Amino acid sequence: MNIAAPPVLIFDSGVGGLSVLGPIRALMPGVSIVYAADNAGFPYGIRSEAEIAARVPALLGRLVERYRPQLAVIACNTASTIALAHVRAALDVPVVGTVPAIKPAAEGSRSRVIGVLGTMATVRQAYVDRLAGEFAVDCTVLRHGSARLVILAEAKLAGETVTAADVAPELVGLTGQPGGERMDMMVLACTHFPLLAAELVEARTLSGLGPLGMVDGGAGIARRVAHLLGGAGAGAGQPGSGRAVFTRADAHVDALAGALQSFGLMTTEIL
Ligand code: DGL
């Protein structure tokens, strides 16, 4: 008898966690995935710390009870930087969080000016100060919080056209700051933003400011998950199953069906 391993739960406010699901699937094709999006609470980036800290652990508790995952990934910088400790305290499964990739950005910067592009809630966190102090102490670390890019990423995956011109003002949010024209590495500190990597690269090219390296946490999270699951939990042979779970039924969820299926999430349900 073939008893399937329990799934890995991947959690975000919306489709951003798909930028983490991609590297997890690439590294562990056999693992079963439950992808949970709190669209009823979306967007997190404009919420207060207190709201996130109350909402996320309670919701993850319900999801773990329902789906019994072997491991949970908070594929959301906003939720992780605010609520990771609360979630770990509340759950009895291992929890992997998402940390702004300041360390690799600092390692790759020659100009010693790096940018952190996240949600408004993420870029104001003391957690980001600590990462900058630990890993980028000799760098100028510019920050910009963008709610618009989150909306644009959702729109793109729902089939709408998003262009470089749409995302360009958010790059200017960093390059327009003192020293910003020298920025040569940028942290995509919101999991929605790698979904707009092509548009961001094009916008940078059009700006004429020269090459810009972009880093996000997806590959590192996938390695961490693989390490925690070991050989046994990661699944092998057959491609793992995938389903998406939302916290509210609406037309946007319907519009996302094609994108979800392209990430192997073949069915959608409401929590
Ligand atoms: N994807 C999320 C993050 O990484 C948050 C997007 C939002 O809901 O504002 O921060």
UniProtKB/TrEMBL annotation:
Q: Which GO terms describe its biological process?
A: cell wall organization; peptidoglycan biosynthetic process; regulation of cell shape
Q: Which SUPFAM superfamilies match?
A: Aspartate/glutamate racemase
Looking at its record, which EC class is this enzyme?
isomerase
Q: What UniProt keywords are attached to this protein's entry?
A: Cell shape, Cell wall biogenesis/degradation, Isomerase, Peptidoglycan synthesis
Per the record, the domain of life is Bacteria
Q: List ligand-binding residues for substrate.
A: D12, S13, Y44, G45, N77, T78, T191, H192
Q: What is its EC number?
A: 5.1.1.3
Which reaction equation describes what this protein catalyses? L-glutamate = D-glutamate
UniProt lists the family membership as follows: Belongs to the aspartate/glutamate racemases family.
* Name of the featured protein: Glutamate racemase
Organism, scientific name: Sandarakinorhabdus glacialis
Organism lineage reads as:
Bacteria, Pseudomonadati, Pseudomonadota, Alphaproteobacteria, Sphingomonadales
